[in-house]
Design brief:
Length: 230
């Protein structure tokens, strides 16, 4: 399940192969439609442009991404095949850059996709020799902008029984702050109180410039991506 950006709706995938969008305040179904044609696990992310991206399996048991418009759930907007591996997919969405990171259970790679113009485009991938059981992503406030780190993955390594830290960086010669890689992002201040949400209000996250977020986080002592193995 996944909330929309303003918290007004919740999208879900189910074992009955249906996609459903619920009103987060009333619990009523707003819209539903057919999802992936397979009983295997599928997951979804509600995108900031209003569309829905799902990661799952086709009727032929091949892994794929699908894009849906909740205004017309009778058919998908697009389907992008990935491969024929059997592990379930973990989608991680970056709404600031409109990027989707896809990792598969048992895989040894993380694939990157861009969402633009109502379509999904493959960009690149990180590869290693160790299979992963799961993956998590560092929030934006923990990234290192001095090395153009746009994401940081924490990979649960199956064979070595440890967590690998994987900085994902954009290679550039310039050492100046890359404004295009770090647009305004969600900060520490909640957009609504719990009482306001319960009363039926909705709001997009309160954003602030990345450098302000980084300055507010500068007192923390932790992992430095600049000291990690590329």
């Amino acid at each position: 399940m996944c909330f929309t950006t303003d918290g007004s709706q919740i999208g879900t995938t189910c074992k009955d192969k249906k996609l459903r969008v619920f009103d987060s305040h009333t619990g009523q179904i707003v819209v539903e439609g057919p999802g992936h044609d397979n009983m295997k696990v599928s997951r979804l992310r509600m995108l900031k442009d209003g569309n829905i991206l799902t990661a799952g399996f086709s009727s032929m048991s091949s892994r794929c991404l699908r894009l849906y418009d909740p205004r017309n759930m009778s058919s998908k907007l697009e389907e992008l095949p990935i491969d024929s591996a059997t592990g379930s997919l973990f989608p991680h969405y970056d709404p600031d850059l409109n990027l989707m990171y896809i990792a598969g259970k048992g895989d040894a790679n993380i694939k990157f996709y861009e969402l633009a113009g109502g379509s999904v485009f493959y960009l690149n991938q990180y590869s290693s020799g160790d299979a992963q059981r799961g993956i998590g992503m560092m929030p934006k406030r923990g990234l290192d902008s001095t090395i153009n780190e746009v994401a940081r993955a924490y990979k649960l390594n199956v064979g070595k029984k440890l967590v690998n830290v994987i900085p994902l960086k954009v290679p550039r010669q310039s050492k100046t702050f890359a404004e295009d890689l770090y647009p305004d992002t969600a900060g520490y201040t909640p957009a609504l109180t719990a009482d306001q949400f319960i009363a039926g209000e909705n709001s997009a996250p309160a954003v602030l410039p990345f450098l302000e977020l980084q300055a507010a986080n500068s007192t923390s002592k932790g992992f430095s991506a600049s000291n990690a193995i590329p």
